[in-house]
Amino acid sequence: MRNAHLLACAILLACSSNGGGTHPSPGGTGGDDEGTGGSATGGSPGTGGAPVKKDAAPTEPDAGVPDGGGGEAGPPSTADCAFASASLFCNTLRELPKTIKETGLFPAAPDFSKRPASLREYVPEPALWSDGMEKQRFLLLPEGTKIDNANPKRWAFPVGTVFIKTFFDEGAAKPRPIETRFIRRIAGDDAFVQYDYNVYRWNADGTDAALLDIEGKRTPVTITIKALGAPFSHDIPSRDDCGQCHDANAKVAQTFIGFDEIRLGSKAGQLDGFAPLFTQPPPAKPAAITDPDARLQRVKQFVFGNCVHCHNGGRLVDLHPELLVANTVGKMADASGIAPPAGYLRVAPGKPEMSIVYVETRRTMLPTGLKPMPPVGVALPDAPALEDLRDWILAMPAK
User: Fold this and answer.
1) Residues in a beta bridge with 329
2) Which of 13, 45, 209, 326 has the fewest CB atoms within 10 Å, measured from its CB?
3) Cα 12 → chain centroid
C-alpha cells in the first residue's frame, strides 16, 4: 500500500452531498447525486446565475445494479471478477493497477451507466462544494462483509472497504470525467484504523484514467463550469491533503466521508435500500439538520457539509449544527493556526467583513492572519452559500 495514512479512532466523515431530483448525468440520465429532498435538505447550487448540477448519478445502470436511491443492494459478491482479470472485486486490497480500466470499475467508460453490480452508489447530503463539479460516489465492500452501524454516528467499515468518487466538469456535449479518488481501509481495528489514498486522472476522451503520483504534490487541471465563467484551475489533492482531512474526521464520533444516517437519509429510500449492507436495521426516522429559520438551516447544512469534517471538536472548534451558533456568534478565535486582526470574531453580529467564518469562506481579500476555507480542493467559493452566511450575519443586531 502506498504511504498509508494512519487514523486514530474509527472511521468518520469527510467530503460530501444531497438527494432527489433528476438531470442528465455521465453515460445516461438519472438521479441528482446531491439532490434536494429528504430530511436534511440544503446543499448549495453553483455560483453566478444558473445553478450548477452536482454529483450526477446515473439511474439506468445495468440490470441488477442499484442506483443512488439504494435499489436492491445485497451482500457483495466476487461474481464481478469477470469484469477484468485484475479486478478489485476479486481482491479489494490488491495493489492498484496503473489504469482505471484495469480495476474493472467502469468497463464501458465513457459510458458510466454500465458498471458491476457490486458497486453500491450512494448520495450523501448536505453537499461538499467542489468548484461546482458533479460527483458520483460508490462503495465497494469485500465479499461477505457488512457495515457495522450499531452506533448511528460512528459506522465501522470492514478492512478492504473502498470509497470511490469521480469528479466531472462540463464538457462540450456532456459531463467529462476529471479525476477519480480512492480511499481504502487497509488495516486496523476500531481504535487504530489505516487507510490509503490514490487518484486516477482521466484522459480527454474519458475512456481511461492513469494512476497519479500524488506523493507530496498537487496536480492542477483546467476545468470548465459554465455558470462560473471562464475555465479555471482545479487542484487534484496530494496524498497528504487527503490524509489531513480524513485524519481530522477520524478523531471524533462523526461518520467517515459523510456516509451516515443524516446524509443517506436525505434521499428517500436510500437507507432502506442499503439495509442488507448493515449489521443493524437502519433508523425509520434518520437524524436531520433543522432550524425554524430557513436561512440558518441552510447555513447549518452548508457548514456541516463543508466544515465539520475538520471543525468537529477534536483539534478545531466544533461546528456541528446544534453547536454552530453558540460556538461562533460573538466568540473569539482560538489557537487554531490563524491570527485574525484585532476585533475579528468567528461571527461578529451585523459585521460579515469582520466575521472569520464569512471572510475565510469568501476566499478572497483575506487580511493577514486568515486563510481560505476549505483549504483543499476548492478554488472558487459557493456563492449562494456565501450569500446566506452574509445575510445571516447582517440580520444580527451589531454589538
Assistant:
1) 347
2) 326
3) 12
What CA–CA distance (Å, rounded) separates 58 from 112? Answer: 7
State the Cα–Cα distance between residues 258 and 304, nearest whole angstrom. 9
Q: How far apart are CA 208 and CA 64, in angstroms?
A: 24
Instruction: List the chain domain ranges.
Output: 5-277, 294-394
CB 325 within 8 A of CB 395: no
- Give the number of other Cβ atoms within 10 Å of residue 145's Cβ: 17
The C-alpha atoms of residue 255 and residue 314 are separated, in whole angstroms, by 14
Mean pLDDT of the chain: 77
370 close to 340: Cβ distance less than 8 angstroms: yes
104: cell is: 474493472
Element (H, E) at 325: helix 324-328
What tens digit of pLDDT does each residue of 296-333 get? 999 999 999 888 888 887 778 899 999 999 999 999 99
CA distance 28 to 19: 17
Residue 216 in grid coordinates: 507530496
Contacts 24+ apart (CB under 8 A), 319-327: 321/289, 321/291, 324/299, 324/300, 325/296
pLDDT in tens, 76-128: 665 666 655 557 888 899 999 999 998 989 989 999 988 888 898 888 888 78
Give the bridge partners for 6, in sequence order.
Answer: 194
What predicted TM-score, i.e. pTM, was given to this entire model? 0.77
Task: State what percent of residues in the chain have pLDDT above 70.
Answer: 73
Which of 80, 28, 36, 37 shows the shortest CA–CA distance to 57? Answer: 28
Burial of 220 (0-12, 13-18, 19+ CB in 10 A): exposed
Using alpha carbons, list the distances in angstroms from residue 364 to 57, 261, 367, 370: 32, 34, 9, 10
Contact between 361 and 381 under an 8 Å Cβ cutoff? The reply is yes
